[in-house]
Amino acid sequence: MNYPIDKIRGDFPILSRSVNGRPLVYFDNGATTHTPEPVVRAMDEVYADYNSNIHRGVHTLSNICTEAFEAAREKVRAFINAGSLHEVIFTRGTTESINLVANAFGEAFIQEGDEVVVSGLEHHSNIVPWQLLQSRKGIVLKVIPVMDDGTLNMDAFYGLLSEKTRLVAVAHISNVLGTINPIQEIIKASHERDIPVLIDGAQAIQHTPVDVQALDCDFYAFSGHKLYGPTGIGVLYGKEKWLSAMPPWQGGGEMIQNVSFEKTTFNELPYKFEAGTPDFVGAIGLGAAIDYVSDIGLKHIANYEQELFNYAFSRLSDLGKITFYGTAPQRTSLISFLLDGIHPFDAGTLLDKMGIAVRTGHHCAQPLMKRFGIPGTIRASFGMYNTTHEVDALVAGLVKVRQLFG
Amino acid sequence: MTIKELQDEIVEEFSMLTDWMDRYSLLIELGNELVDFEEAHRVDQNLIEGCQSKVWLHAWLEEGNIRFMADSDAIIVKGIVALLIRVLDNRPPDEILNADLFFVDKIGLKEHLSPTRSNGLVAMIKQMRMYALAYKTKMEKN
Asked: Where are the domains of chain A?
């Protein structure tokens, strides 16, 4: 079957707009993806037809809305093949998911002097929550070094695991380098030592099928807005054995069973971790996004994106005088590079004038920039709707940038 | 020339360039031509770190006027820095404090001074005014 690129592009109204008088070429999908019409429609319908607070009222609309919200949870469960709906918690996004684990898991299972292992290519969202835990409880943060090609130094990883390691937290795919980390190996090695593993899936969930049971990861975090869904909604998958044993993180409505000033008892999973009115409209939108992606087929999307990636890498390589960051054999979805002698801010500014959206800067991964000794990179990150024509436009844009610099 | 006249001059120079590429070419040229930043002043104290690019700003007092020397690692930012220095360098503190920097908007570079751009330019202008205020206070005390 041919990949239905024209139909897909037609579903994303924003792709036909122009920017600075030029057709938009959007290569900043690693930061956020666009939203197809069916997702926008699903959310419009909530407000137009059945908006009501969930799990509260006995009235009809509240019931319809609750059912739609829980149906979205089931869609997420099926999408990542979680064993139970109890294991799917709605959050604001990947960042909140990781903070939830750092706080609740950290509260129950990590004590002073214990160790958490992260990698040197993590996004700040998978570094700072652990540093906060470090300052609260005096834990120790261990970092897996990154090799020159952007892979993790696995020999060093094995050396970091110790009797004091309480959790390993690593990205599935690097947001700067595109490296696909060997998470199966990391999970297996950690479990052999009874150490649970959290996977930051922010850059993976939209590019590769994820089966949390096959992976056997203990936690998996991702965001809706990087999966063609709305902003402000995300997911934390967690194994029930951990979630049950973790104390609530935030308190409020929804997460309680009984409240009195003498004693409050908490609701069952997953509601224990969903204090306050959740973003049910966002969750329903995320459900619609999962339907949309699943209809096309994530494997299908992954194959198409890999071809696009290969094409882009070859075209960019032909430019010469370009340095790539991240050349791991297993990588996908994005390309980080610098044109020799040109600051990424300058290149990004000029590309923007040509209607081309790329990300420039440190990509919220300053330790990694320091590792490579650069101020930042230009990052072109791909989505299911990008085309080889757009890659050609990027290459032509970069040629023009060079011309401007003489 | 007054600060206003200098800005009018810049606006006129840019108004002759209707194509965005020509405008940015000029900025790049101005960036390249900016007086070399003295390495002795490239210290953390003079560094204004934006999210996207860095700016270094050094200021000193010379016969009642404030002198500026600045640099950036990004050439476009450096070009705008050069324009800011052309307008505000070698002026008495009061003029710097009261200057209405209208030229940036008029030559179509306002986007670079929005607080969200975080290229260090907004902080640089703020810092230039802080120097003006500090030297003004110092001069009044003496």
From this structure: 5-30+297-404, 40-295
